[in-house]
Amino acid sequence: MTAPTSTPTRVLVLNSGSSSLKYQLIDMRDGSRPAQGIVERIGEETSRLAHTPLREGGGGKRERNGPISDHSAALKAVAEELAADGLGLDSPELAAIGHRVVHGGLRFTEPTVVNGEVLAEIERLVPVAPLHNPANLIGIRTAMALRPDLPQVAVFDTAFHTTMPESAARYAIDVETADAHRIRRYGFHGTSHAYVSRETARLLGKAPEEVNVIVLHLGNGASASAVRGGRCVDTSMGLTPLEGLVMGTRSGDIDPAVTFHLRRVAGMSADEIDVLLNKRSGLVGLCGDNDMREIRRRIDEGDERAALAFDVYVHRLKKYIGAYYAVLGRVDAVAFTAGVGENAAPVRQAAIAGLEELGLAVDAELNAARSDGARIISPEYARVAVAVVPTDEELEIARQSYALVRGADAPDGTAREALVRGAEGSNE
Ligand code: ADP
């Protein structure tokens, strides 16, 4: 842990879900985590807080079990745990609290210091993010009540994608209907796409402005993006996170007429179809499992449904790589990230296979090697770099929050300009 100084150097990052609160206290000087943890099952009898302080040699993890009634109680419990480690919310070293907010619509193109008007706007976006924005709002309000004097920064999952041109963001439907209901492609996972595209440039020894990158964020949710010179020009998720790649439990792209058909022929309600496509589709719908490790194990045992699920998953991924190659025209790197992207070598191998004519190839040995850091897995002769770049959404939220409130480059050298494009204009 780094010694305290008079300048605030820490950011508390909060990711508030409907029944959970994840937190990381990040020291901006070196990206270390003096403490992190999670509160789960908020509002139930069996709530659990798991708190992990950074200790020499590890250890020191603490747990609280028992009812935590709401997010306010959860954050108070987190504050107590932090205080017990000398890292309380009243610490002068805290520069800001950074909040992950899923939907920022078109209004929030940058990280934004929260005030009453910003809260009202996030609230106004609830109809397009009914599962996420209400939970994010509770987290922000709770933190504001505990530290009203500290800047609270909202960092939006959609912000990185607001640079998409209309040609990529518009659905080809009646414009009046679309605009009346704010129907357009927003994209999600933006914090990860921003971080990974920038780290990929760093890996290539170039500035973000110099490189075109296809980022494949393959977690349980999955999305692809085409990033030209540090700016997103297309992404695979749309109005909601349902569009695009095959995911753990989501179908990704589907003919919208399937939904009318299910209503008319199967008599399913809109809510039932919503659950089918978001929770019972994708890998889980195809083979019953959404964990790529389990799917690979089943394939090794000759399981045909698991093999089908893998093939559908990879086919869609390959289509997006080709599509974004065409969108970008010139590609410098394809970067794999998140749980599947960082760990599943067979997915990377299969997605890139056969794309040699596009300058894309994977070196089997480099692909199989395991490492925690960012690395290139393409052979030296390949025209386009294929890379594995671990994502770190919390660090990105902390960097953006810090850059905004301190008006400075991140202490690790990431330029403020790259983190908060034109932030001054967006915070009035
Ligand atoms: P989330 O979207 O929930 O943040 P993650 O990015 O953590 O998800 O990714 C979770 C997924 O990553 C798991 O469902 C699993 O399919 C995959 N995964 C994790 N570890 C491995 C591994 N070692 N090999 C293959 N797949 C993995």
Automatic annotation (TrEMBL):
<feature type="binding site">
    <location>
        <position position="15"/>
    </location>
    <ligand>
        <name>Mg(2+)</name>
    </ligand>
</feature>
<feature type="active site" description="Proton donor/acceptor">
    <location>
        <position position="157"/>
    </location>
</feature>
<dbReference type="InterPro" id="IPR023865">
    <property type="entry name" value="Aliphatic_acid_kinase_CS"/>
</dbReference>
<feature type="region of interest" description="Disordered">
    <location>
        <begin position="46"/>
        <end position="68"/>
    </location>
</feature>
<keyword id="KW-0418">Kinase</keyword>
<dbReference type="GO" id="GO:0008776">
    <property type="term" value="F:acetate kinase activity"/>
</dbReference>
<keyword id="KW-0067">ATP-binding</keyword>
<feature type="binding site">
    <location>
        <position position="393"/>
    </location>
    <ligand>
        <name>Mg(2+)</name>
    </ligand>
</feature>
<feature type="binding site">
    <location>
        <begin position="291"/>
        <end position="293"/>
    </location>
    <ligand>
        <name>ATP</name>
    </ligand>
</feature>
<feature type="binding site">
    <location>
        <position position="22"/>
    </location>
    <ligand>
        <name>ATP</name>
    </ligand>
</feature>
<dbReference type="InterPro" id="IPR043129">
    <property type="entry name" value="ATPase_NBD"/>
</dbReference>
<comment type="function">
    <text>Catalyzes the formation of acetyl phosphate from acetate and ATP. Can also catalyze the reverse reaction.</text>
</comment>
<comment type="subunit">
    <text>Homodimer.</text>
</comment>
<keyword id="KW-0460">Magnesium</keyword>
<comment type="similarity">
    <text>Belongs to the acetokinase family.</text>
</comment>
<dbReference type="Pfam" id="PF00871">
    <property type="entry name" value="Acetate_kinase"/>
</dbReference>
<feature type="binding site">
    <location>
        <begin position="339"/>
        <end position="343"/>
    </location>
    <ligand>
        <name>ATP</name>
    </ligand>
</feature>
<dbReference type="InterPro" id="IPR004372">
    <property type="entry name" value="Ac/propionate_kinase"/>
</dbReference>
<keyword id="KW-0808">Transferase</keyword>
<keyword id="KW-0479">Metal-binding</keyword>
<dbReference type="InterPro" id="IPR000890">
    <property type="entry name" value="Aliphatic_acid_kin_short-chain"/>
</dbReference>
<keyword id="KW-0963">Cytoplasm</keyword>
<feature type="binding site">
    <location>
        <position position="100"/>
    </location>
    <ligand>
        <name>substrate</name>
    </ligand>
</feature>
<comment type="pathway">
    <text>Metabolic intermediate biosynthesis; acetyl-CoA biosynthesis; acetyl-CoA from acetate: step 1/2.</text>
</comment>
<feature type="site" description="Transition state stabilizer">
    <location>
        <position position="250"/>
    </location>
</feature>
<protein>
    <recommendedName>
        <fullName>Acetate kinase</fullName>
        <ecNumber>2.7.2.1</ecNumber>
    </recommendedName>
</protein>
<feature type="binding site">
    <location>
        <begin position="217"/>
        <end position="221"/>
    </location>
    <ligand>
        <name>ATP</name>
    </ligand>
</feature>
<keyword id="KW-0547">Nucleotide-binding</keyword>
<feature type="site" description="Transition state stabilizer">
    <location>
        <position position="189"/>
    </location>
</feature>
